[in-house]
Amino acid sequence: MDQISTxxxxxxxxxxxxxxxxxxxxxxxxxxxxxYAVPRYLTGNPNDSVIPLNTDVALHYLTLAIHAVPAxxxxxxxxIQFITPLRTRFPRAHRITGRIYMISVVFAAIAAIVxxxxxxxxxxxxxxxxxxxxxxxxxxxxxxxxxRRGEVQLHRVWMVRNYALTFSAVTLRIFLVxxxxxxxxxxxxxxxxYSASVWAAIFINVVIAEYFFVQRITAPALRRRRRVSTNQxxxxxxxxxxAPTPDPELAGQR
Length: 254
Ligand code: HEM
Description:
It holds the Pfam family DUF2306. By secondary structure, this protein is mainly alpha-helical. It has 9 helices and no strands. It has one domain (17-231). It is globular, with a radius of gyration of 21 Å. The chain binds protoporphyrin IX containing FE (HEM). Residues 33-34, 37-38, 41, 50-51, 64, 67-68, 71-72, 74-75, 112, 115-116, 119, 121, 125, 129, 132-133, 136, 165-166, 168-169 line the site of protoporphyrin IX containing FE (HEM).
């Protein structure tokens, strides 16, 4: 990543068809998860909670509500931020939505860390949620700091990382539903399915985000650098005096 130009420059890039389809699928899954998971924490009735509540703590349901509502908002807003034409044509809208996203994540993450302490769903899930909550906060703070410094490309990297963590709420529910359906075959307890789903969701999302960086950022940068150094080799003196072309993939793009 040492070659990354962090300031904004470079030509605009068209969003490929594959990227567009990926974004649409991601947005639909995020919306479906928010609609499925959040409304039952808006009723004010603790009996609507999907997960068992801690009977020693009267405010457990409220904590889940304070977590679920901004978390659901962040989940739905995230994909909008990755739409390149919207970012380039309406930078002000991108900034406003981005602020709402970041504030939502901060509230949701703090409530998540409290909810982790109250959870009755087992130590393994608690450890996973605690790490996820801290990483969620850390990545959003990094996303904020980098954009304040004008480091657009680094901001993009941190926000992709952050949304990968946000999206683990979707992956978790996919794994959980599949795991629960397989429970009679596997003969395992709910707690085992739950904690395995949380760990697997975090792992898969982080790996996919890092794969995205390698494929979309690091690999093209290395290829361009190799091309530039080949052009500048003593065999082609005509090009040796040229400055390396700025890398559109690495240069900050909104
Ligand atoms: C990525 C960081 C997140 C962390 C660290 C986190 C953490 C937690 C924790 C600790 C609980 C209580 C679990 C238990 O006691 O077993 C919980 C529940 C919940 N979370 Fe999150 N969460 C995150 C993201 C999200 C997102 C993006 C949503 C958006 C839909 C969400 C929606 C909910 C809901 C609705 C519940 C209540 C349980 C249920 O009905 O499934 N969370 N979360």
